[in-house]
Write a structure and sequence with these properties.
The protein has 281 residues and is mainly beta. It has one domain: Distorted Sandwich (Beta-galactosidase, Chain A, domain 5). The strands form three sheets. A nine-stranded antiparallel beta sheet has the order 7-8-9-10-22-19-18-13-16, with no helix packed on it. The longest helix is centred in the C-terminal third of the chain and has 7 residues. Bound molecules: 6-O-phosphono-beta-D-glucopyranose. 6-O-phosphono-beta-D-glucopyranose (BG6) binds next to strand 20.
Amino acid sequence: FGCCINTMANSITLDWSENCSATIHLYGATVTSWINNGKEQLFLSSKSKIDGSKAIRGGIPLVFPNFGPWEHGPQHGFARISWWKIIEQPTKMSNGDVTTVLQLTDDDKTRNMWNHQFLLTYKVTLGENNLTTKLEVTNTGSEQFDFTVLLHTYFRVSDINSCKVSGFLGCNYSDKVEGTDNVSETTKEIVVDRNIDRVYRLAGQPDGHLISTPETKLMLTKINLPDTVLWNPWTEKAAAMSDFDDLGYLNMVCVEPGYVSQRKILCAGETLTCSQNITVL
Ligand code: BG6
């Protein structure tokens, strides 16, 4: 099976087999699709822009160098609204996995917002039953900088009412909907049944998050991403977003590994390597 770069669509397709593939859009290095055994695992809004005029609504947008509103630039930073370069063509490795590597570096536009020199290297690897996205953040300048980073993964679920997400028990979280902080999670398996927007500290460690529906069980594990954001806009907030399907909230949940509750400091020349792995059980 061939992997290909679709220059017209500005995307890369990794093919593991006839019914197992992943697509990465060069705008934001956003993974827009992951099909495992013929079934799409990621939610992508049918109303999403994919022409580079707005961040892609769905898949796995990459949030850097700031999670949330930001005094220097757009919400969630500029990585998801930048055009990335392919630095390693899609290739099939000896174990059968297929992989590609993209890069983003500072330019006049990014330095105007955030005056730092950096290199982001993003490796996406597709296996028979798993997807791994690994990010390296390198400080290529001569002064330290600080940032937050997050892999904003939108999972596709057949019915949110029958979906359970675990890996938060005992973790402290801040709740953006309730306006509370330092709440301790007492639920082992969370059922998302309302607008949820929480930043859990040290969540999913060491066992990861299980995202389960009656049909599919996905295990999300992560490295060097201590926090996890759990988000679903629910009815009103979904309707208020021009690029979100009005009923799309019923078919998605965002479980987003990140380094967000504290800012990561990188000294000149240093690199942070972080990743998520999602496995279909
Ligand atoms: C989540 C945030 O990660 O992203 C939410 O916790 C936010 O507060 C959501 O609403 C979507 O953000 P955006 O910028 O893609 O609309």
